[in-house]
């Protein structure tokens, strides 16, 4: 059995998170293997493996010596894929400014996108970048396997550590050790094409809505003859299980229980059954889901941007960005909702996810220090504000909208958060989330153990529900729980 440290996650409700930073884009496909949503998962061919050959693997990660800034250091960094033109421009500008301050550092661009199925191979072959992107579920997974550097000393010496957004940063604090740097995050919500509803004479539901409101709205706007669905729950890849988990949480359920040194599957509960029965109603009673239900993150969000579905479930910034900048929609056409409550008066609970940067434990102390400095280079800085504003201006020149993430590495009410908000308020091409909507969001972190494996198994169940009207829902749910328990949870011993 593999032994792991016990972690206590604080289940934090997000009460107010207004307009926030978008310099690094968004990864709101937290459940899928394609971890950057619409970004391509590519093999790293540009990494300088000489940066990852130190004997420091998983060992002493104390801060580098004071003269590290004068040493010749090479680091490889996460670099956006070719389709992300604006993000590449921002990263190139950051590299230029970083090298002006640290001319001793050679920066190698890596287009490898984190994939849980590839990270072990990358680490084993010393091909993982010095600094790579990952998402919220992976903190314990990476720390347990020694694939994320212990950056506790670097973080504790960081000038702005106390101003980092605890909603995000806590997800990469395992025990008393820090293994990642928060970038941005989200609470999963529902993005609605208001124009589709209005054009069909369908009433726009209140933001404090319920499952019944979602079902009735989806049923009313769907038109299967025209290939229009009322809602497009994701139905393939791990993202199908990820989408469904929001409803499990809203019904009061849990993915797993951790007690007495054991991890036990808990999702085959009354709450889980209720959530799956709701999915069955969407598909077979309301006939509101797509006939071709096998949609991944990109498929579902693309359908939304193209006006082929009225609602999509995701981290809100992705669908909003695609709807505005690829689908030709107007800000007034798009409404961002929290997830619906199971019943009136219930919580609008959504999966809390986010993007993080992790430092390769195989890197030397100097490489790790420079990777940390690069990761946080624009944090809490005027140069960072200038870079954001330049991006907003460029988007305006290109007749595009700037869509911030829902949560960023800083808190909205901090001094820096107010500075960012002031920049946003200067421009009419910045999409800003309604405080009314944000006040309803209730973020719940994902499970501590084997989250992606659970998502994958639940995807099979979701597909059974969408494809078979007479499916035995309880039997499918119990079978999934048995598989996850025997294949994954039984191998874990929690101390």
CATH topology of the largest domain: D-Maltodextrin-Binding Protein, domain 2
Radius of gyration: 22 Å
- Please summarize the sheet with the most strands: 5 strands, mixed
Shape-level CATH architecture of the largest domain: 3-Layer(aba) Sandwich
Number of helices: 17
Q: Low-confidence parts lasting 5 or more residues at pLDDT below 50?
A: 1-28, 32-65
Mean pLDDT: 86
Structural class: alpha+beta
State the end-to-end distance.
Answer: 12 Å
Find the count of extended strands (DSSP E, 2+ residues). 16
Oligomeric status: single chain
* Number of separate domains: 2
Shape field: globular
Write out the CATH superfamily name of the largest domain: Periplasmic binding protein-like II
Helix content: 25-40%
How much of the sequence lies in strands comes to 15-25%
Reading off the top of the CATH hierarchy, the class of the largest domain is best stated as Alpha Beta
Outline the structure in words.
With 495 residues, the protein is an alpha+beta fold. The chain folds into two domains: 2-187 and 353-441, 3-Layer(aba) Sandwich (D-Maltodextrin-Binding Protein, domain 2); 189-351 and 442-494, D-Maltodextrin-Binding Protein, domain 2, CATH 3.40.190.10. The chain is 36% helix and 15% strand. The protein contains 17 helices and 16 strands. It has helices at residues 85-101, 119-124, 139-144, 152-156, 166-169, 194-199, 211-221, 238-250, 270-285, 297-305, 317-325, 365-375, 382-397, 415-425, 435-438, 451-467, 473-487, and strands at residues 2-4, 73-78, 105-110, 131-135, 173-174, 177-178, 181-187, 189-193, 256-259, 262-265, 311-314, 334-338, 348-359, 407-408, 441-445, 492-494. The strands form six sheets. Strands 4, 7, 13, 14 and 15 form a five-stranded mixed β-sheet that branches. It has a three-stranded antiparallel β-sheet with strand order 11-8-12. Strand 5 and strand 6 (177-178) form a beta hairpin. The longest helix is centred in the first third of the chain and has 17 residues, at 85-101. The N and C termini lie close together (12 Å). The model is unreliable at 1-28 and 32-65 (pLDDT under 50).
């Amino acid at each position: 059995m593999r032994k792991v440290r016990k972690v206590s996650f604080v289940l934090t409700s997000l009460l107010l998170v207004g307009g926030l930073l978008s310099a690094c884009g968004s990864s709101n496909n937290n459940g899928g293997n394609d971890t950057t949503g619409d970004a391509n998962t590519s093999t790293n061919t540009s990494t300088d493996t000489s940066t990852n050959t130190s004997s420091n693997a998983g060992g002493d990660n104390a801060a580098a010596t004071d003269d590290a800034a004068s040493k010749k250091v090479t680091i490889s960094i996460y670099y956006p894929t070719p389709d992300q033109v604006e993000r590449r421009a921002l990263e190139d500008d950051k590299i230029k400014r970083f090298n002006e301050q640290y001319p001793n550092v050679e920066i190698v661009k890596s287009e490898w996108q984190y994939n849980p199925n590839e990270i072990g191979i990358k680490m084993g072959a010393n091909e993982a970048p010095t600094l790579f992107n990952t998402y919220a579920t992976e903190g314990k997974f990476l720390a347990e396997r020694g694939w994320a550097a212990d950056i506790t000393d670097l973080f504790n010496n960081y000038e702005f550590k106390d101003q980092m957004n605890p909603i995000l940063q806590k997800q990469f604090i395992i025990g008393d050790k820090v293994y990642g740097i928060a970038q941005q995050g989200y609470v999963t919500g529902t993005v609605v094409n208001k124009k589709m509803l209005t054009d069909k004479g369908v009433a726009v539901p209140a933001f404090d809505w319920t499952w019944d409101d979602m079902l009735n709205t989806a049923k009313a706007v769907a038109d299967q003859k025209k290939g229009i669905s009322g809602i497009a729950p994701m139905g393939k890849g791990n993202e199908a299980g990820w989408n469904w988990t929001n409803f499990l949480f809203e019904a009061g359920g849990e993915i797993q229980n951790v007690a007495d040194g054991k991890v036990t599957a808990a999702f085959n509960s009354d709450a889980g059954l209720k959530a799956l029965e709701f999915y069955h109603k969407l598909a077979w009673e309301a006939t509101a889901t797509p006939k071709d239900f096998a949609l991944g993150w990109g498929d579902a969000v693309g359908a939304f941007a193209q006006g082929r579905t009225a609602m999509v479930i995701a981290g809100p910034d992705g669908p909003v960005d695609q709807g505005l900048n690829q689908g030709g929609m107007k800000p007034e056409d798009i409404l961002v909702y929290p997830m619906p409550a199971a019943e009136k008066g219930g919580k609008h609970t959504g999966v809390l996810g986010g993007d993080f940067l992790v430092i390769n434990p195989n890197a030397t102390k100097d490489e790790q220090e420079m990777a940390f400095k690069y990761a946080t280079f624009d944090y809490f800085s005027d140069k960072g504000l200038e870079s954001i504003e330049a991006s907003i201006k460029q988007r305006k020149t290109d007749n595009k909208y700037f869509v911030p993430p829902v949560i960023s590495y800083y808190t909205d009410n901090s001094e820096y958060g107010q500075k960012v908000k002031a920049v946003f308020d200067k421009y009419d091409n910045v999409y800003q989330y309604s405080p009314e909507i944000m006040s309803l969001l209730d973020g719940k972190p994902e499970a501590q153990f084997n989250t992606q494996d659970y998502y994958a198994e639940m995807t099979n169940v979701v597909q059974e529900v969408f494809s078979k009207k007479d499916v035995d829902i309880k039997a499918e749910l119990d079978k999934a729980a048995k598989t996850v328990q025997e294949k994954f949870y039984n191998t874990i011993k929690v101390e």
